[in-house]
Design a protein that fits this description.
Organism: Mycolicibacterium hippocampi
Keywords: Cell membrane, Membrane, Transmembrane, Transmembrane helix, Transport
Main location: membrane
Subcellular location: Cell membrane
Membrane topology: Multi-pass membrane protein
CATH topology: Glycerol uptake facilitator protein
Order of helices and strands: HEEHHHHHHHHH
Number of strands: 2
Number of helices: 10
CATH class: Mainly Alpha
Radius of gyration: 18 Å
Distance between the termini: 18 Å
Strand content: under 5%
Largest sheet: 2 strands, antiparallel
């Protein structure tokens, strides 16, 4: 089977990031908590939103992982490049497609939510934040530490689940469950980013100070990803250079869906 072209890869990253933002942030905007016309309180709550993010990345990994490697996140792309899993010339095209996909996801949420008469997007688009914009009122430094550490852990899980020594066909499950757990830990802290494209996708629709704080949700995840990309091959003794291949040929040929960063 031929290796996907760069056009195929950036299309996969765009659609995958779109789905991640629509499914994850959309669950928070549409269904986390609402009251019906009969004054019945419904919603999926804190756990439901965390699970929604995990399910979106799990399904996107299995759908697009064999095309692009299944990043859907600029931090993942940076960590993968540092760890030798993707060529450096692909980083900028991946980042651009991820941001565009995230913005399209945010726009779709905004358009759908605007169909509700009482909807006000300001402060209600699942944006990330610190201080007054943190769900739990956490400080800037608390948010930075959480985002750096959790992004590094996320990258370690991704790199470990997708290397040659890992069982085939299970990477998407490990990655999705890891992202769910990360959200359970950090929704109260920062509303959980670990993904600059996810943060960018809704920040400008949310307004209310979110665009001004967006720098944190680029800087901290990228630092965490860089730490993971440097340490993974040093600590675990494995540096797998894929050169021009975003995914391994055996992953493309296998009957089981798999991703590889």
């Amino acid at each position: 089977m031929p290796v996907p072209t760069m056009l195929h890869r950036i299309a996969a990253e765009l659609f995958g990031t779109f789905w991640l933002v629509l499914g994850g942030c959309g669950s928070a905007v549409f269904a986390a908590s609402f009251v019906t016309a009969d004054a019945v309180s419904l919603g999926i709550g804190f756990l439901g939103v965390a699970l929604a993010f995990g399910l979106t990345v799990l399904t996107a990994v299995y759908a697009f992982g064999t095309v692009s490697g299944g990043h859907f996140n600029p931090a993942v792309t940076l960590g993968a490049a540092i760890a030798g899993r993707i060529e450096w010339k692909a980083v900028l095209p991946y980042w651009l497609s991820q941001v565009v996909g995230g913005l399209l996801g945010g726009l779709t949420i905004f358009v759908i939510a605007s169909g509700r008469p009482d909807f006000d997007p300001v402060g209600n688009m699942a944006a990330n934040g610190f201080g007054d914009l943190s769900p739990g009122g956490f400080s800037l430094w608390s948010v930075i530490i959480a985002e750096v550490v959790l992004t590094a852990v996320f990258l370690w899980v991704i790199l470990g689940a997708t290397e040659d020594r890992a069982p085939k066909g299970f990477a998407g499950l490990a990655i999705g469950l890891c992202l769910t757990l990360i959200h359970l830990v950090s929704i109260p802290i920062s509303n959980t980013s670990v993904n600059p494209a996810r943060s960018t996708g809704v920040a400008f629709f949310n307004a209310d100070g979110a665009p001004a704080q967006l720098w944190v949700f680029w800087l901290a995840p990228l630092i965490g990803a860089a730490i993971a990309g440097v340490l993974y091959p040093l600590v675990f003794g494995r540096r797998e250079a894929l050169a021009e291949r975003p995914v391994r040929e055996d992953a493309l040929d296998t009957a089981e869906p798999a991703t590889d960063i």
